[in-house]
Design goal:
- Helix 7 crosses helix 8.
- The protein has a single domain, classed as Orthogonal Bundle (Cytochrome p450), CATH 1.10.630.
- A hairpin with a 5-residue loop joins strand 5 and strand 6.
- The protein is globular.
- It starts with a helix and ends in a 9-residue tail after the last helix.
- The chain contains 18 helices and 7 strands.
- The chain is of the alpha/beta class.
- Strands 1-2-3-7-4 form a 5-stranded mixed beta sheet.
- The protein binds protoporphyrin IX containing FE.
- The site of protoporphyrin IX containing FE has 23 residues, from helix 13 and helix 17.
- InterPro entries: Cyt_P450, Cyt_P450_CS, Cyt_P450_E_grp-I, Cyt_P450_sf, Cytochrome_P450_monoxygenase.
- It holds the Pfam family p450.
- Pathway: Secondary metabolite biosynthesis.
- This is Cytochrome P450.
Length: 512
């Protein structure tokens, strides 16, 4: 007993000593870059969960959603657009954060020198190999197969379906009510995004009032399975199987996953055994056809990889879209003058068209697009984009005083693009804390706008998202005005207080 204790104490001592030596070495390596020195590494998942429960504490934790909260502050304090965080637990690690458009472009462009550290994405492999959680040859294969799936014809489908989902909401759900009161706008933006991905992603139409009967051989409707999977993906990814089998609620989540897989397997079977192939443009059908039709088989993926990629489309596209739409409506409610301008813009085009807008009309709604871009600038759904240096190198960033700093980046260092830092960087954006959509009309600093990342690993679903969102915003603003509900307890609050209250978010809002 005594000797076991002695061994344990010695091991702990060795760990502590090694950790401290490694921490010192890490600080020396980036001594030229200032930035937080922290006890808890906020990029590690477990630490992030524990850290989320803690408020920001200097030298200990940064708190939840720290990048969106601190925006450009760390860089302003450092006087340059790069900082280095050195964290101690679970293991000393240096991360370089960038908010400089030129340095970010360089890192995003040289994929071999700065690949994606896919070990940070291993949880996403739970559903099968896929384009987001891979690198090297596997990624090339997935990307070659998946990129053409997001075709012009798919985008047209996204537009048409979004318009009819919105009309269905107005006519058959909201009806003649002159005023609709919502507790939270994700109550409508999540279903909108879900229905669009249902039909344009999976090829199955689900609407506000349809898909209420469970088909034979199933225990859940497709709509319920899709809804549960899309909102509980995160829990399923992190919880071990035995946890998922503990309660009725978690068992139902498990069931939703197997039901969705079963629906997809049936869709594969139906499509493969159909005598005449129907021409379809949803992501699932096109992906399935592309992989079955390749004559020399070099572009094949397994059924598991097909499912893996579909789950990833759902994960990458659903909440990001729903939350961005929600922030858009919140900002329009907070800035009524901007909302009025948008109304006028949409009304003028609609009057000119004298019919429902079609996909061909999309590019006329320039202010809808500008409103969306400004929302993405202020509330980017992906705050960070991970890279890693595979060789010793240097990077150069701009300083607050107009000069430049060049610093060394040792091989193995993790680099993160600090998206809110870049989006609130006053070197690129005038008055960055104000919602001003018109900054996206005319010339704007494209390299300083990074919601979809850039380079070869940029978002594959950007056009899908933009099409859906422009259609949804345009339709909503053509019929309704959005206001913040007046509540007695908030009478007398300042604009800043109201802004903070309305835009406060927990990035895992719908995963709770
Ligand atoms: C507001 C909407 C969206 C935002 C802000 C967004 C953002 C991003 C970002 C930042 C990346 C790079 C991630 C990284 O490097 O780790 C990415 C990649 C990706 N996105 Fe999106 N996305 C959005 C919508 C969508 C939609 C609608 C889909 C699909 C239906 C989608 C599918 C993907 C896929 C498959 C990748 C991986 C691409 C690759 O690694 O080659 N995204 N997205």
């Amino acid at each position: 007993m005594h000797s076991v204790l002695l061994v344990l104490i010695s091991l702990l001592g060795i760990y502590l000593l090694q950790t401290l030596l490694e921490f010192r070495r890490a600080i020396r390596n980036v001594g030229h870059l200032s930035g937080p020195r922290l006890l808890l590494d906020p990029s590690k998942f477990l630490v992030r969960v524990i850290g989320s429960a803690l408020p920001p504490i200097p030298y200990v934790s940064r708190g939840v959603s720290w990048m969106l909260r601190t925006k450009h502050q760390d860089f302003a304090a450092a006087g340059r657009d790069a900082t280095a965080m050195v964290a101690l637990i679970p293991w000393p690690k240096t991360t370089i954060y960038l908010a400089d458009a030129v340095a970010i472009k360089e890192v995003a462009t040289y994929r071999a020198k700065f690949p994606k550290p896919v070990y940070l994405y291993s949880m996403l492999l739970a559903f099968g190999g896929n384009v987001i959680a891979s690198e090297g040859e596997d990624w090339k294969r997935y990307r070659t197969i998946t990129a053409p799936v997001f075709s012009e014809r798919n985008t047209r489908l996204v537009w048409d379906e979004t318009i009819s989902i919105m009309l269905d909401l107005f006519d058959n759900v909201w009806g003649d009510s002159p005023e609709i009161v919502l507790d939270h706008c994700v109550d409508i933006t999540l279903p909108i995004a879900l229905f669009v991905v249902g039909v344009a992603g999976f090829g199955r139409r689900v609407t506000w009032t349809s898909d209420l009967t469970v088909p034979p051989g199933h225990q859940m409707t497709f709509k319920d399975a899709l809804h549960i999977v899309s909102t509980k993906l995160f829990l399923k990814m992190v919880a071990p199987d035995w946890v998922m089998n503990l309660t009725e609620r978690t068992k139902r989540i498990n069931l939703a996953f197997s039901e969705l897989e079963q629906y997809m397997a049936e869709m594969v079977h139906a499509r493969r055994s159909a005598e005449t192939k129907e021409e379809r443009h949803d992501l699932f059908s096109v992906l399935l056809d592309a992989t079955s039709d390749d004559p020399n088989g070099s572009l094949t993926i397994t059924e598991q990889e097909l499912f893996g990629n579909m789950f990833i489309f759902l994960l990458a596209g659903h909440e990001t879209t729903a939350h961005t739409l929600c922030f858009t409506f919140a900002l329009l409610a907070l800035y009524p003058d901007e909302q009025e301008r948008l109304h006028q813009h949409i009304e003028d085009i609609m009057a000119d068209l004298n019919r429902m807008p079609t996909y061909e009309d999309m590019n006329r709604f320039t202010l809808s697009m500008a409103v969306l871009n400004e929302t993405l600038r202020m509330f980017p759904p992906a705050s960070t984009i991970y890279k890693k240096a595979t060789e010793d190198t240097n990077l150069t960033v701009g300083n607050a005083d107009g000069g430049k700093t060049t610093f060394s980046v040792p091989s193995g260092t993790e680099i993160e693009f600090h998206v809110p830092g870049l989006h609130y960087n006053p070197r690129y954006w005038k008055d960055p804390h104000t919602f001003r959509p018109e900054r996206f009309l005319g010339e704007w600093p494209r390299d300083a706008f990074l919601p979809f990342s850039s380079g070869a690993r940029a978002c594959i679903g950007r056009r899908f998202f933009e099409t859906e969102s422009i259609a949804a915003i345009t339709m909503m603003m053509s019929r309704y005005r959005v206001e913040v509900k007046e509540e007695p307890e908030f009478i007398g609050e300042t604009f800043e207080q109201r802004y903070a209250r309305i835009t406060a978010s927990d990035l895992n809002l719908t995963n709770a």
